[in-house]
Amino acid sequence: MKYLFLLHRGADEDLPAPGTPEAMALFNAYREANEAMAAAGVLVDCAPLESVSTATTVRVRNDETLLTDGPAAELKEQVGGYTIVECADLDEAIKWAATLPAAKDASIEVRPVVNVGVPT
């Protein structure tokens, strides 16, 4: 079964500045976790997201496409990245989610992905 990890961080929490030793340590920690998931054969895809300031929200109302700059809702936490894994069960997915750095200083929402039968 596939699981989606949504990596949440507080809207007011800054990541280390690019190029700093702290940023490199964080990058390396994510690389190591992702390599371990890939080696175990569970990693499907993962990526960080651009800042929430780059988001565009799309809504269609009365056949008119409406665009709003920014996220769909003002939240205390923002999604900063995602990981998709294929695991035997929720317990295994949780084990892998716990290996990501966000589990130590932010939070990770683990959600099963519904299989709707769309060919891949």
Q: Helix and strand layout, with pairings?
A:
Blueprint: E1 2-10, H1 21-39, E2 43-48, E3 56-61, E4 64-69, E5 77-86, H2 90-97, H3 102-105, E6 107-112
Antiparallel strand pairs: 1-5, 1-6, 2-5, 3-4
Could you explain the architecture of this structure?
The protein is of the alpha+beta class and 120 residues long. It has one domain: Alpha-Beta Plaits, CATH 3.30.70.1060. The chain is built from three helices and six strands. The strands form two sheets. Strands 2-5-1-6 form a four-stranded antiparallel beta sheet.
Spell out the helices and strands N to C: EHEEEEHHE
- What can be said about the biggest beta sheet? 4 strands, antiparallel
Low-pLDDT regions: none
Distance between the termini: 15 Å
The CATH homologous superfamily is named: Dimeric alpha+beta barrel
Strand proportion: 35-45%
Q: What's the architecture, going by CATH? A: 2-Layer Sandwich
Q: Which fold name fills CATH's third level, the topology?
A: Alpha-Beta Plaits
Short description:
26% of the residues lie in helices and 36% in strands. The chain has helices at residues 21-39, 90-97, 102-105; strands at 2-10, 43-48, 56-61, 64-69, 77-86, 107-112.
